[in-house]
Amino acid sequence: MWVKICGTTTLEDAQLAVEAGADAIGFVFAPSPRRVTASQLAALPLESLGPARRVGVFVSQKAEEIAYDVRAAQLTGVQLHGELDFSLIQQLRREFGDDLLVIQTLHWPAEGFTPETERRLRGDLLAMAQYGGANAVLVDTRTATASGGTGRTWDWEHAREILSGAAGKLRLIVAGGLNAANVAVAIRTLHPWGVDVASGVEAAPGKKDPDRVRAFVLEAHKAFAEFEPRW
User: Fold this and answer.
1) 90 with 61: CB under 8 angstroms?
2) What is the CATH number of the domain that holds 8?
């Protein structure tokens, strides 16, 4: 059971998520209404978040840039968007060892699959399962203009067959259009390792709604509890 509240921009919202029971807080370093900078985070007492993972979300950035932000912003994890790049993961592993949580994002096209895009996703999942450099794979919705944070769900029933067949024992994190009303359905359908939410718990872009955050974490925990004991 692993719950990440992403797109966090303030210490107050990060503390709210931790108090609600989240395991990780996501900070977006890519262009976004929820974007933060390393200098902004460096000024905050993030140690007050305790053991919760502090995860930076990066899109198509070089290893040197990511490493700088990890150190400056006191991050304990990274989430990599953009194309699957094993050399980038290797560089981060050499830099930080196994202490850094590395999440690789793969994308489910919001417009639907073509045979080519489905083959590509299967191939990427198989490659990640064999390589083993990342700690988890996050599947999020992609549109023509956004590689994540779209707030749109994807076909979980269709995904179940693809992910169970190709992902192997990868730790799967489900993202994309989740909220307190549908997170339990996503968990029951895909039995993921974790879930990730941003817009589904917001009052406005970059500002969390306390009631939505608490409801989301509660519903996720309840759904995970239905099958995790059997594992």
Assistant:
1) no
2) 3.20.20.70
> Measured on CA atoms in the order 130, 116, 113, 110, is the torsion positive or negative?
positive
Domain count, the chain: 1
Q: Dihedral sign, CA of 148, 154, 106, 54?
A: positive
Q: What are the φ and ψ backbone dihedral angles of 89, each rounded to 5 degrees?
A: -60, -40
Whether 196 is catalytic: no
Closest CA to 216 of 17, 9, 12: 17
CA-closest candidate to residue 54, choices 26, 18, 34: 26
State the Cα–Cα distance between residues 92 and 191, nearest whole angstrom. Answer: 29
Q: Give the global pTM.
A: 0.91
Range of the domain at 210: 3-230
Q: At what angle do helices 115-131 and 156-166 cross, to 10 degrees?
A: 40
6, 13, 69, 196: which is the annotated catalytic residue? Answer: 6
CA distance 54 to 21: 14
Asked whether the CA dihedral 137, 62, 147, 17 is positive or negative, the reply is positive
In 3D space, the residue among 186, 181, 192 whose CA is nearest the CA of residue 215 turns out to be 181
How confident is the model over 99-116, as pLDDT tens digits?
Answer: 999 999 998 877 666 778
Q: Which amino acid is at 192?
A: P
140 is catalytic: yes
Q: Give me the residues paired with residue 139 across strands.
A: 106, 174
Count CB atoms within 10 A of the CB of residue 143: 13
- Token match 């912003």: residue? 73
Average pLDDT for 124-147: 79
Of residues 69, 124, 140, 196, which has the active-site annotation? Answer: 140
